[in-house]
Design brief:
The protein is of the alpha/beta class and about 375 residues long. Helix content is about 45%, strand content about 15%. The protein contains 14 helices and 13 strands. Strands 3-2-1-4-5-6-7 form a seven-stranded parallel beta sheet, sandwiched between helices. Strands 10-9-8-11-12-13 form a six-stranded parallel beta sheet, sandwiched between helices. It starts with a strand and ends with a helix.
Amino acid sequence: MALDAHVVGRRKTGNETYILNLAEALAGLDDVAPIVYLDAGTAWPRASHIERRDLRWRAPQLRLPLELPFRAKRDGAQLLHVQYVAPPLSRLPVVTAIHDVSFEDLSGAFSRSTRLRLKVSIRLSALRSAAVVTLSEFSRSRIVHHYGVDPDRVVVTSLGVDSRWRRLETDQVASRLNGLPLPERFVLTVGNLHPRKNIPRLIQALAKARDQGAGDLHLVLAGQPAWRAEEIDVAIDKVGGGSWVHKLGYVDDDVLVALHSAADVVAYPSLYEGFGLPVLEALACGAVVVASSTTSIPEVAGDAALLVDPMSVEGMADGLSRAATDRQLRVRLQKAGPARARAFTWRRCAEETVEAYRLALRRSS
């Protein structure tokens, strides 16, 4: 099978993590031989024997409708697996990964042009694909709701977490974080600084928690700026948080693992998630996690995180205070997180994805 891996090397965070780990897990199965298609000159960042091909065109207007389906067919693939947008025509069955439909349900988090483009292109992709894979029962229900596709054609393939996501010893943490200007005690939040990540409310909530006795907790933001990122600066100014909010920008996974191990609390108050991989990674590291009680996150976190209403500043503030100060709660969550994370593996994701491939091939025969 052919796998569109053009996101590798582009710092597409969750999308890149998905492709890298899925491809590796698929290659480890007996009955699958993936061919990954990369931007020309991009190295596969893992030491593996996965078959690779260079794409000539970076622009999606050329890659998707022309090069990718033609090359996959010529290379002998039985089907083509893409993310979000499927080629308009393909001589191979297409499986499309649609991780979420936040642009349908959360209109204020996207510009009008982006929302319209996604609504049209992803609707068409869902309808023309032989099968759709998504990451949670929540996302599956929203895809079926918005696009009217047969529910049996939408397969849930939960993400995994690999062994490097674990709690580190103190000396390992110090080595990996050497040179970063980090405070002694901090709340960590991870992900692109997109409106749906709800960072302004998190800043307000932490300001309130600090005022209510949670201590000198700082906030560390690990993620790239995105659309409307200036609203975060406005929120910082409103609460006088210039001295205790720190923006690190993009950091690699080795640093993120150390940050999870060093943080007092990991907060993920997202307004909308198709899965919530940062929550799973934080749980695997034994972090004390405060996360949203909405969309897909309860499916991932179970009872291993403290879940709060992401629309309530007061509720978040209370959750952050409890997570930072309630020793009994902290011990329970630190033990529960790794146990919960062990249920999510990339091998399971690959096996579930193969079931979607079989469905696509049956429907196309």
